[in-house]
Amino acid sequence: MLSKANVKKIPAYTLCMAPMIRYTDRHFRYFLRLLNHNMLLYTEMITASAIIHGDTQKLLCFSHEEQPVALQLGGSNRQELIRAAKIGQQFGYQEINLNIGCPSVRVQKGQIGVCLMKTPEIVAQCVEAMQEAVDIPVTVKHRLGVKTRKQDPEYTYERLAHFVACVAEKGCQRFIVHARIAILQGVNPKDNRSIPPLSYETVYRLKRDFPSLHIIINGGIHTLASIRTHLNQVDGVMIGRAAYQNPYWLHQLDQDVFHATAVPVSRLSILESMLPYMEACHQQNIPLHQITRHLLGLFYGQPHARAFRRIITDFSQSPHKNNIDHFRTLIEKWMT
Questions:
Q1: Domain extents for the chain?
Q2: Residues 307, 334: contact at Cβ < 8 Å?
Q3: Domain spanning 267-335: which CATH class is it, in words?
Q4: Which among 237, 227, 244 is positioned nearest to 295, based on CA atoms?
Q5: Residue 183's beta-bridge partner residues?
Q6: Nearest Cα to 240, choosing from 79, 42, 93?
Q7: Which among 115, 121, 146, 206 is least buried, having the fewest CB atoms inside 10 angstroms?
Q8: Smallest Cα–Cα separation from 171: which of 136, 204, 145?
Q9: Which of 101, 129, 105 is nearest to 113 (CA)?
Q10: pTM here?
């Protein structure tokens, strides 16, 4: 039976942007919010210990314009997770998400990430502790299962359902499910995003078996047609690298999925809207190439996209890479 403290109203989100290490930083999230006003954005995974012992301001600071934003934590130490979740709430994040999906060797050595699927009781205890410590929802992102080696027996649906039931009992109402298992040995993190086969039907089954939970599907989703198909079966869709490659797609989804009434904004207007933000970051001594690298895909599939990417790349490697006026000049030449 759930305690009253563990039952929190959780907002429904039809679309989410996946947390991606080295990608979904504050600058990329600001850029995305210019493109899509409705989806939930996530931070990169940040370990609880890094937040407690590192440069908290640098790790967690973000712009109000990015909201709604969820903070994804990595960890398994309850006391550290409690402290990190409280700090995240103080910074203004609207959700705390626990990473139970990352298969990297470094993460495994820290006994966090996807290896925690082997110990659902520990995950449940961590979720319960954070739920009691903060007023915002605590959610979990996980895989369909985990195997040590590729040749090991398959991780059964019954184990997956037990994991979800165990964590849900402690108050977690939203589960973001990457529709693949993870393989801990012999497959690197990049290949873990493609080699284990996708099983969307397994995620659909979870929703059928746990109808009261908010189930979001993730993995290999890159078309509007597939999004519509998934939304007939689950509550939400999480998009990852397809949106990083072609970020303007998210603006189109604002129209197609959310039926946004605002007049569509051109790619060029989005680029122009980024310039004041870059100027403000420049005033804070933030290296501009940390921002411009996220713009590479803005003109994906458009004429002269290659020339635009070359400008971004050349700028980031030039002696003037922190000169906003130099960047403006390059863009003006490209436009003409």
A1: 4-256, 267-335
A2: yes
A3: mainly alpha
A4: 244
A5: 147
A6: 42
A7: 121
A8: 136
A9: 101
A10: 0.92
CA-CA-CA-CA torsion sign (235, 238, 190, 21): negative
Domains 4-256 and 267-335 share a fold: no
List the catalytic residue out of 16, 102, 166, 281: 102
Task: For residue 68, say if its preceding peptide bond is cis, omega within 30 degrees of 0.
Answer: yes
Query: pLDDT tens digits, the chain, 336 residues: what are they?
Result: 344 445 566 778 899 999 999 999 999 999 999 999 999 999 999 999 999 999 999 999 999 999 999 999 999 999 999 999 999 999 999 999 999 988 877 776 677 889 999 999 999 999 999 999 999 999 999 999 998 888 888 889 999 999 999 999 999 999 999 999 988 887 787 887 878 889 999 999 999 999 999 999 999 999 999 999 999 999 999 999 999 999 999 998 888 887 766 678 899 999 999 999 999 999 999 999 999 999 999 999 999 999 999 999 999 888 888 889 999 999 988 987
Q: Which residues contact 155 (CB under 8 A, 6 or more apart)?
A: 117, 144, 145, 146, 147, 181
Cα separation, 104 vs 113, whole angstroms: 8
CB neighbour list of residue 57: distance below 8 Å, 6 or more residues apart: none
What is the maximal distance between C-alpha atoms in the chain? 65
- What pLDDT sits at residue 185? 83
Cβ contacts of 76 within 8 Å, gap of 6 or more: 110, 111, 112, 116, 122, 123, 126
* CATH number, domain 4-256, options 3.60.21.10, 3.10.450.60, 3.20.20.70, 3.40.50.720: 3.20.20.70
281 carries an active-site annotation: no
Gap between the Cα atoms of 120 and 187, Å rounded: 23
